[in-house]
């Protein structure tokens, strides 16, 4: 008989895991607490504008395509992709803005303008990043780690220096470039991995290969459009998806979960996969005797940033902006310190600003602009109404000073989204937008486990688990946990 499998949370990882298990014959029910699927990749519509609420960068397209191929499907049957010609625009505090395009030779020339021979060094930097990326994809990401000895294996010991696992990102990049602009362009992605360049292992220089070599894409309908494609995939595989179902606990039977409880409703389960916030799932859903991680464990974790987001619909075009835009302060270490060392609302903050209406004209009314502003901020800050409005005004004045664009006029739509919203919508620990940071001791085997230690039929997937933060990583996490489930059941997963 088919396993009755209940998956909790319909973000990318929950949708992916559901599709995989249903494809292998499980009777899968997917429960989502919100009214729509997609998790953080939901959309919000207002006044003719359609906003991606969370992730907005589509990177590592081969991971998405490989996932569909794994199921005998074609990604293009579920959503289409457009490769951006201009990947992003970078504003600097004390230098002219630059654009990074799909033309690598032009990017090398740009680096040459920063410092002599920097273009040649950029190629060498990208070569080592590609090597590490290939090793990671083939040997480290698509596998489970149950002990420290599996992670620190012969390959790691033999080639650890080449993979730069024990060097921090900032020091590593300084071996190639002295110019601050070059270093910031190569290090900025660390914040989207939930950490700072001085704490991230230099292994993550692979991110430069991801954007400069593999390219930056935009899916039809935005990231919410991609998530909708994964929902259709799950449904095609036979998954029953139920929204507005907030899980409140479990029924237990002989150290197994017998049913998942949603208020007055119960869903019998042979297997349970949780893709919701790990801390919430352990602390709030499990009774004490079944928890693996103590309060002390969670207190000592380095939690990734939350995000102060402003969604804005503007009734005019923003001429100084590209689709993706970044601002780096001269002293960006101060911003990282205000996230990780002395938590407070950042002053002179680095920020990300998206105008996806530059690519997708359906996301805004004719002549209008869809604006998504994101400032990484420390988790756990007091996020009250007064603080929100004060900080939003600071951010908008800051953006005008940096970019020359006035975002106070012709505003049709405006909404603030931050800590308390991440907690309310996703049960996010300390209001984090990302989960746990990618420090060395929160990588691979050091991340929370995929399988419960005390309930044999309970598994976890998503951004808290290996391989970690980012949509492609959560898809891989889904594949890893599905493999582990099938091994436990004695049935190899694969097509």
From TrEMBL:
The keyword Metal-binding does not apply. GO terms for molecular function: oxidoreductase activity. Keywords: Carotenoid biosynthesis, Oxidoreductase. It comes from the Bacteria. Residues 12-485 form the Amine oxidase domain. Pathway: Carotenoid biosynthesis. InterPro entries: Amino_oxidase, Carotenoid/retinoid_OxRdtase, FAD/NAD-bd_sf. GO terms for biological process: carotenoid biosynthetic process. SUPFAM superfamilies: FAD/NAD(P)-binding domain (SSF51905). It holds the Pfam family Amino_oxidase. The keyword Oxidoreductase applies. NCBIfam families: crtI_fam. Belongs to the carotenoid/retinoid oxidoreductase family. This is Phytoene dehydrogenase. It comes from Marispirochaeta aestuarii.
């Amino acid at each position: 008989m088919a396993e009755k499998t209940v998956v909790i949370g319909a973000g990318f990882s929950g949708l992916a895991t559901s599709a995989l298990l249903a494809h292998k014959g499980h009777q899968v029910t997917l429960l989502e607490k919100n009214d729509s699927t997609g998790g953080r990749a939901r959309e919000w519509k207002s006044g003719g504008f359609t906003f991606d609420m969370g992730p907005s960068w589509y990177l590592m397209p081969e991971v998405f395509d490989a996932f569909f191929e794994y199921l005998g499907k074609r990604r293009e049957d579920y959503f289409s992709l457009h490769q951006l010609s201009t990947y992003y625009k970078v504003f600097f505090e004390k230098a002219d803005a630059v654009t990074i395009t799909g033309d690598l030779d032009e990017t090398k020339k740009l680096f040459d303008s920063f410092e002599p021979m920097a273009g040649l060094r950029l190629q060498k930097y990208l070569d080592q990043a590609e090597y590490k990326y290939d090793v990671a994809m083939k040997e480290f990401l698509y596998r489970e780690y149950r002990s420290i000895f599996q992670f620190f294996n012969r390959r790691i010991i033999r080639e650890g220096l080449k993979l730069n696992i024990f060097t921090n990102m900032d020091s590593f990049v300084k071996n190639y470039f002295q110019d601050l602009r070059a270093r910031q362009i190569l290090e900025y992605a660390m914040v989207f991995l939930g950490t700072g360049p001085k704490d991230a292992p230099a292994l993550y220089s692979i991110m430069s290969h991801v954007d400069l070599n593999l390219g930056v894409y935009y899916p039809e309908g935005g990231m919410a459009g991609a998530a909708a494609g994964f929902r259709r995939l799950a449904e095609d595989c036979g998954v029953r998806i139920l929204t507005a179902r907030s899980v409140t606990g479990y029924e237990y039977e002989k150290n197994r979960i017998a049913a998942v409880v949603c208020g007055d409703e119960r869903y019998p389960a042979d297997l349970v996969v949780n893709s919701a916030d790990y801390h919430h799932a352990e602390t709030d859903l499990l009774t004490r005797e079944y928890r693996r991680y103590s309060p002390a464990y969670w207190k000592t974790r380095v939690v990734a940033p939350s995000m102060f987001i402003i969604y804005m619909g503007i009734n005019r075009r923003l001429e100084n902006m590209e689709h993706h835009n970044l601002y780096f302060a001269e002293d960006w270490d101060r911003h990282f310190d205000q996230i990780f060392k002395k938590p407070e609302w950042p002053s002179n903050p680095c920020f990300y600003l998206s105008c996806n209406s530059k690519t997708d004209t359906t996301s805004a009314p004719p002549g209008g602009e869809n604006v998504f502003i994101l400032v990484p901020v420390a988790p756990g800050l007091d996020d009250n109404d007064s603080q929100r409005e004060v900080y939003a005004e600071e951010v908008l004045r800051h953006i005008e000073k940096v970019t020359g664009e006035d975002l106070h006029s012709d505003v049709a739509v405006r909404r603030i989204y931050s800590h308390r919203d991440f907690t309310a919508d996703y049960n996010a620990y300390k209001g984090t937008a990302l989960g746990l940071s990618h420090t060395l001791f929160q990588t691979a085997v050091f991340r929370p486990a995929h399988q419960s230690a005390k309930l044999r039929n309970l598994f976890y997937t998503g951004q808290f688990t290996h391989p970690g933060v980012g949509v492609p990583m959560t898809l891989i996490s889904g594949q890893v946990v599905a493999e582990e489930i099938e091994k436990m059941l004695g049935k190899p997963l694969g097509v």
